[in-house]
């Protein structure tokens, strides 16, 4: 039905697409997988008319066609739901769906007709969406449904979903796949971009793998395994981590009915030598929790104990002195200074202590030596102390931040989204460091929106919903479904 032939696209010096050819058959469920930066979104943005290819052609039913705008793509029946939604928060569901091609009555917008149509589409897909609800009042999962309804409303025949489950709970993801199956049974072609191999294998009728701007292979889900797919994505066998039993020591962090802006009566305990995972949908108090325990946010009531010491007020310097290290979610805003060199970044926060200083002066040789030790031990590439921090790739920046924080030999390590945006090899490297830290007796507080990550690493997990710790699970009783229900606030405790 659609034929992408020899597509090439450069951004500055970066080759996003390198001679990519791909056939898209009517009614299939095609998955597009690859590491971060492999070119998946670029390829689909070309098909959606958002990017113009430098060379190559797109043909619909054999006719080469230029798609200069998304409107041109939509006219050819191609719709796309992006990773970042494009809804107007202050408008209702129905208004968002019809925005741009509203049903008209005379000169005015026929809102009641729009509502009826939207309600019908939702009903046919099993979406529980109120057409009158303001988009700003909806969960991320529901906003995504609005995006899908909006695309269908424009009569698309091919729907591209770019990493749709990254923002969903397991239940919502399962529901999304059920809906895509319904849609494809009705004849819609669905293209799913993902790097989650398990879900790709359950979703797809065909899988195309991209690596560094090229399409490296196409496989059928029956003819492959997650391991083989990972290998095709990264070009070599993927490392796998194991989970040794924990040997918990003394309590290194305890919260008793702690309240702060964004947190309500939170009680939890973390011991040395264990990883406590925090699961939850984005924006349910996880960030506030990490900020309170690292001294970045005041708490208004409750009892906070860090490394055996009750603290009434905590600031980042005091937290550090008590043995708290922090790998924040936004490494470029809070952990790393892009314009400082790698070695300056390594000494950040410790620049008055040996080996970074000798008395009041910077110890340049000591700093260089320690930096070289750290970058080599942690496989930061390139291992160049004088390089700007901003010149490292995301994965290497994160490896550097983790290396620096662990170098302080913390009792409590607080990590928020430690592997977001990293490629598979870097993800495994960072996770391995966290596991090693736990075995060395550090207590690790792990916040991640990626439930798979929490399940892979945590000895125990606490689910956060609306600023509260609503449920606790031990590793032996991790139950994805039940955890997801608590994340959504629909489980009965
Ligand atoms: N609008 C853009 N401007 C500059 N570079 C871009 C742009 N879009 C993509 N790239 C670059 O193209 C490469 C492929 O990116 P992308 O298609 O987003 O990969 P993926 O979706 O597989 O993660 C990356 O190196 C990315 O930085
Ligand atoms: Mg992408």
Features:
493 residues, alpha/beta, Rossmann fold, 3 domains, six-stranded mixed beta sheet, 17 helices, binds adenosine-5'-diphosphate, binds magnesium ion
Write the layout of secondary structure elements.
Layout: E1 2-11, E2 14-24, E3 29-34, H1 40-47, E4 55-60, E5 63-65, H2 70-75, E6 78-81, H3 93-98, E7 104-105, E8 108-109, H4 111-125, H5 140-153, E9 158-162, H6 170-185, E10 189-194, H7 197-203, E11 206-211, E12 214-219, H8 226-234, E13 251-260, E14 263-271, E15 275-279, H9 286-293, E16 301-306, E17 309-311, H10 316-321, E18 324-327, H11 331-335, H12 342-347, E19 357-358, E20 361-362, H13 364-377, H14 394-407, E21 412-416, H15 424-439, E22 443-447, H16 451-457, E23 460-465, E24 468-474, H17 480-488
Parallel strand pairs: 3-10, 3-11, 6-9, 9-10, 15-22, 15-23, 18-21, 21-22
Antiparallel strand pairs: 1-2, 1-4, 4-5, 7-8, 11-12, 13-14, 13-16, 16-17, 19-20, 23-24
Helix pairs in contact: 14-15
The chain binds adenosine-5'-diphosphate and magnesium ion.
Query: How many independent structural domains?
Result: 3
CATH architecture designation of the largest domain: 3-Layer(aba) Sandwich
The fold-level CATH name of the largest domain is Rossmann fold
Largest beta-sheet details: 6 strands, mixed
Low-confidence stretches: none
Q: What's the number of extended β-strand segments?
A: 24
- Described by the principal axes of the CA atoms, the overall outline is globular
Order the strands across the largest sheet as they lie in space.
6-9-10-3-11-12
In CATH terms, the superfamily of the largest domain is P-loop containing nucleotide triphosphate hydrolases
| Contiguous helical run count | 17
Ends distance = 50 Å
Assess the beta-strand content as a share of residues: 25-35%
């Amino acid at each position: 039905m659609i034929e992408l032939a020899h597509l090439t696209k450069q951004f500055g010096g970066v080759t996003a697409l390198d001679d990519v050819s791909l056939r898209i058959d009517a009614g299939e469920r095609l998955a597009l997988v690859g590491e971060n930066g492999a070119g998946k979104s670029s390829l689909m943005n070309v098909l959606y008319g958002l990017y113009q290819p430098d060379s190559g052609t797109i043909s619909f039913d054999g006719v080469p066609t230029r798609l200069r705008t998304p409107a041109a793509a939509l006219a050819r029946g191609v719709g796309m739901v992006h990773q970042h939604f494009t809804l107007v928060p202050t408008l209702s569901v129905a208004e968002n769906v019809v925005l741009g091609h509203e049903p008209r009555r005379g000169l005015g917008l026929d809102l009641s007709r729009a509502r009826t149509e939207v309600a019908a589409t939702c009903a046919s897909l099993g979406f529980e969406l109120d057409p009158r609800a303001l988009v700003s009042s909806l969960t991320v999962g529901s906003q995504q449904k609005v995006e899908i309804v909006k695309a269908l409303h424009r009569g698309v025949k091919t729907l591209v979903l770019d990493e749709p489950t990254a923002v969903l709970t397991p239940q919502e993801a399962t529901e999304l796949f059920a809906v895509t199956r319904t849609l494809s049974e009705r004849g819609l072609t669905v293209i799913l971009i993902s790097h989650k191999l398990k879900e790709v294998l359950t979703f797809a009728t065909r899988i195309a793998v991209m690596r560094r701007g090229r399409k490296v292979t196409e496989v059928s889900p029956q003819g492959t395994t997650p391991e083989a797919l990972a290998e095709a994505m990264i070009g070599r066998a993927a490392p796998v981590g194991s989970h040794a039993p924990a040997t918990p020591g003394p309590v290194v962090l305890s919260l008793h009915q702690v309240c702060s802006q964004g947190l309500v009566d939170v009680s939890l305990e973390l011991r040395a030598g264990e990883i406590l995972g925090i699961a939850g949908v984005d924006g349910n108090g996880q960030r506030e929790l990490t900020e309170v325990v690292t001294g970045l946010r005041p708490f208004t009531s409750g009892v906070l104990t860090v490394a055996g010491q009750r603290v009434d007020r905590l600031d980042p310097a005091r937290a550090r002195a008590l043995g708290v290290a922090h790998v924040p979610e936004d490494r470029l805003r809070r952990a790393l200074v892009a314009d400082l060199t790698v070695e300056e970044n390594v000494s950040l926060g410790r620049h008055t202590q040996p080996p970074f200083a000798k008395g009041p002066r910077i110890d340049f040789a000591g700093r260089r030596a320690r930096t070289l030790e750290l970058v080599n031990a942690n496989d930061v590439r390139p291992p160049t102390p004088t390089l700007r921090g901003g010149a490292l790739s995301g994965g290497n920046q994160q490896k550097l931040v983790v290396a620096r924080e662990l170098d302080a030999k913390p009792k409590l390590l607080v990590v928020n989204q430690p592997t977001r945006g990293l490629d598979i090899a870097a993800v495994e490297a960072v996770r391995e460091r966290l596991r090693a830290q736990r075995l060395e007796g550090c207590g690790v507080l792990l916040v991640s929106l990626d439930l798979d990550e929490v399940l892979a690493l945590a000895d125990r997990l606490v689910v956060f919903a609306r600023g509260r710790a609503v449920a606790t699970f031990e590793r032996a009783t991790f139950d994805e479904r039940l955890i997801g229900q608590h994340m959504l606030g629909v489980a009965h405790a």
